[in-house]
């Protein structure tokens, strides 16, 4: 932002004068308002009284509210608990119910039951005097149905406008408010609307149940006819295709085929057993009938008895042979008995073999016959297979129709028996009561707002009137002067004629206005001539350096080391190329030390119009020069843009985050103390101390003989800055080469305004040479 004083001086004076006039205008407005306070208050009182009187003529409107709880979680007694609730729990359900309450279906019965068509607030009301006189001459005319319908519809619309339905928070509670001139009627209407809504819900449930029952009855008739026709088609198809069913629901051919197959399986099993038995007997016969070789296959009680006798005879023979000779008669008789039993066993086995052969032949013949019968039955079954497919289709269709018919019949009976057992999902939880106070008009608020409006209008009228008078006075005063400017300017202000006319009071309007114009011009010239000027404290030349060739030229590198060397050389009494710079710095320090001390702290604040005027180098040089006088010096960096002191003195930002006293760093090689007021803060942003920081800084300043503050630029400096309040003197540095671009009167006025009754001075820098490089000298 360009400082206001870095511009053409005449334009800068004009803008300053405009700001002064603006401030005077604001003060004038405040004075006008203070003078016109009685008029403004009177106008506000009139507005309030008129509004209060008007509010008394308004018809009061009362509002009564009833609350209805709509619970979508209510389940009917015969609902399936596993089936999800179709009503839902979303906010759209409540919004839908609000629309239903506000609908014609709910409000029209309320209008009819309460005869709102004849109500003055909702309908046409009772006929007036003019209407009654008109009826005497024209007779009573009956209104047609269309007119009555239109009047009732208009009444319902009026009732809808007077009804407010809204949801209470995020709950399932619905508030129904009705407005009416009568508090009792408002409560009655609110309760009537709630009751009408509940009745409408019951009517809707009953109507839905009746419609469902009617539709189910119609569907039952159709299903019954379809079932009868399907069963008739089945019977006719069976008769046409000679298909007979058993008790198990199978066709006779299917049942017969199943029986033959079962018998064939049993016959084949018996044949297998007979064949095995016959083969075993033939094996015994082929190997010779031996009682020891007959197995369990020849299962006969006779064989078992003969085998026991044969075993006993064999034991007797063995005993006799052991005691007697083979030729002994007893041994011969035992041997004969044994042979007789063997012959009997052989004969019995042959008889059993013949019986087994006969059984085998019978089984074979039975299996053959059953196989023939199975083939015949299978042929009949194949013939009926196509007819069976069609029959199954007819039976499936009939079965499906029968199931639908049974379900519909059961549902119809359930609806007819349970249609009255329905729990309502809405109920009134808070009936409306007659309100005590109306909602309209709000007389207190109206009166207060009217009074405030009266204050605003009164203020505008007072200021506007004064502004018009001032504008009129200025126009009247300037018009004659513009008409004859040469006469006014040609005549001197101290003319005897003018003095005489002024003394005698006989001067005309043009003469008085001319005198006033000349007086204002004179005051303006005097005020311009009286513009304060800054006291020049010193002129700091460019720091110079000597190159390798021994030539002296302006310093273009870092000035910190050069300043330190120059100040130390001057303090030691040695001459050097920058002796004039050190002498001027010492002169500034002497001037600062002459400043009266306030609160035991001497604080010098340095500023400049913009960057590049040598402010930082000057502050550093002043601190070093004061330190050479054995003074305790504190150098503070308060310049937020470049922060050269904090950078060149290698201040660690992490160490500048604690209390202000802990951030003070002592530099023994320089003989000064340093504190950064801007380290760690956003760059290019002026940080203004708070009250606590200001007190802390003032307490630190008391420990030093001199405090030098490298402050912000003058355009960003405000007189309420805590650092400004703590400072005892002010110095502004202005580069000589930039002085032609700066309005020095405005610069002096701004600095002196901030300084007040404290000392302020000007330090011209970079005099006597042109710098090839200026960044580091900022």
From TrEMBL:
Protein's cellular compartments: Cell membrane
Domain of life according to the entry: Bacteria
One Pfam family this sequence matches: GNVR
Membrane topology of the entry: Multi-pass membrane protein
Domain (Polysaccharide chain length determinant N-terminal) ranges: 24-113
Name this protein carries in UniProt: Wzz/FepE/Etk N-terminal domain-containing protein
Domain Tyrosine-protein kinase G-rich, residue spans: 393-462
Record-linked SUPFAM superfamilies: P-loop containing nucleoside triphosphate hydrolases
Coiled-coil segments: 213-247, 353-411
Lineage per the UniProt record: Bacteria, Pseudomonadati, Pseudomonadota, Alphaproteobacteria, Hyphomicrobiales
Keywords: Cell membrane, Coiled coil, Membrane, Transmembrane, Transmembrane helix
InterPro entries: Bact_polysacc_biosynth/exp, GNVR, LPS_length_determ_N, P-loop_NTPase
Transmembrane feature ranges: 37-56, 445-464
Membrane in keyword set: yes
């Amino acid at each position: 932002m360009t400082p206001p004083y870095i511009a053409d001086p005449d334009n800068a004076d004009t803008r300053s004068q405009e700001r002064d006039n603006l401030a005077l205008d604001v003060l004038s407005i405040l004075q006008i308002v203070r003078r016109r306070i009685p008029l403004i208050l009177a106008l506000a009182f009139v507005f309030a009284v008129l509004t209060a009187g008007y509010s008394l003529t308004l018809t009061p409107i009362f509002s009564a509210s009833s609350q209805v709880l709509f619970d979508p979680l209510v389940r009917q007694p015969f609902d399936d608990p596993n089936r999800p609730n179709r009503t839902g729990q979303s906010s759209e359900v409540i919004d839908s119910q609000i629309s239903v309450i506000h609908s014609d279906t709910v409000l029209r019965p309320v209008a009819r039951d309460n005869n709102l068509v004849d109500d003055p607030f909702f309908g046409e009301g009772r006929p007036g005097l003019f209407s009654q006189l008109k009826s005497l001459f024209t007779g009573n005319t009956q209104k047609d149905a269309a007119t009555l319908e239109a009047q009732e519809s208009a009444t319902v619309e009026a009732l809808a406008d007077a009804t407010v339905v809204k949801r209470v928070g995020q709950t399932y509670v619905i508030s129904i408010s009705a407005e009416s001139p009568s508090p009792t009627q408002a409560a009655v209407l609110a309760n009537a609307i709630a009751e009408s809504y509940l009745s409408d819900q019951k009517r809707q449930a009953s109507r839905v149940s009746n419609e469902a029952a009617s539709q189910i009855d119609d569907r039952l008739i159709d299903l019954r006819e379809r079932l009868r026709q399907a069963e008739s088609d089945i019977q006719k198809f069976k008769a046409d295709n000679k298909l007979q069913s058993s008790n198990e629901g199978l066709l006779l051919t299917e049942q017969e085929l199943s029986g033959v197959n079962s018998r064939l399986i049993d016959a084949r099993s018996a044949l297998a057993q007979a064949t095995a038995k016959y083969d075993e007997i033939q094996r015994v016969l082929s190997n010779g009938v031996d009682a020891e070789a007959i197995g369990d296959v020849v299962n006969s009680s006779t064989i078992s008895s003969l085998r026991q006798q044969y075993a006993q005879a064999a034991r007797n023979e063995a005993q006799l042979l052991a005691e007697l000779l083979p030729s002994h008669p007893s041994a011969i008789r035992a041997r004969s008995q044994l042979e007789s039993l063997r012959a009997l066993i052989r004969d019995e086995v042959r008889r059993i073999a013949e019986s087994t052969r006969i059984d085998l032949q019978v089984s074979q013949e039975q299996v053959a016959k059953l196989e023939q019968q199975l083939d015949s039955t299978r042929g009949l079954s194949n013939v009926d297979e196509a007819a069976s497919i069609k029959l199954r289709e007819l039976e499936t269709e009939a079965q499906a129709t029968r199931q639908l018919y049974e379900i519909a019949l059961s549902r119809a009976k359930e609806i007819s028996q349970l249609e009255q057992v329905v729990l309502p999902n809405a109920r009134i939880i808070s009936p409306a009561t007659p309100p005590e106070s109306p909602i309209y008009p709000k007389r207190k608020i109206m009166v207060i707002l009217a009074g405030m409006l009266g204050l605003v209008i009164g203020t505008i009228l007072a200021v506007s009137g004064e502004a018009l008078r001032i504008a009129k006075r200025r126009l009247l005063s300037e018009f004659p002067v513009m008409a004859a400017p040469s006469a006014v300017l040609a005549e001197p202000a101290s003319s005897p004629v003018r003095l005489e006319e002024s003394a005698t009071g006989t001067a005309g309007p043009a003469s008085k206005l001319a005198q006033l114009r000349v007086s204002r011009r004179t005051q303006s010239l005097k005020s311009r001539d009286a513009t304060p000027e800054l006291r020049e404290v010193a002129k700091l030349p460019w720091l110079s350096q000597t190159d390798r060739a021994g030539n002296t030229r302006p310093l273009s590198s870092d000035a910190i080391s050069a300043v330190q060397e120059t100040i130390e050389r001057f303090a030691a009494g040695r001459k050097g190329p920058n002796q004039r710079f050190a002498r001027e710095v010492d002169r500034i320090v002497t001037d600062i030390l002459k400043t009266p001390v306030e609160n035991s702290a001497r604080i010098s604040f340095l500023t400049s119009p913009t960057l590049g005027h040598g402010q930082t180098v000057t502050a550093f040089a002043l601190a070093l020069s004061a330190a050479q006088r054995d003074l305790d010096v504190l150098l503070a960096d308060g310049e937020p843009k470049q922060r050269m002191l904090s950078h060149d003195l290698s201040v660690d930002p992490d160490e500048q985050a604690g209390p202000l006293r802990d951030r003070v760093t002592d530099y023994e090689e320089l003989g000064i103390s340093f504190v950064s007021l801007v380290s760690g803060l956003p760059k290019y942003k002026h940080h203004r101390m708070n009250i606590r920081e200001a007190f802390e800084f003032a307490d630190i300043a008391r420990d030093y003989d001199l405090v030098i503050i490298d402050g912000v630029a003058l355009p960003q400096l405000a007189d309420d800055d805590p650092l400004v309040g703590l400072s005892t003197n002010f110095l502004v540095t202005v580069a000589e080469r930039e002085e032609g671009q700066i309005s020095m009167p405005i610069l002096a006025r701004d600095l002196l305004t901030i300084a007040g009754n404290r000392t302020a001075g000007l330090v011209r820098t970079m005099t006597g040479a042109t710098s090839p490089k200026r960044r580091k000298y900022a």
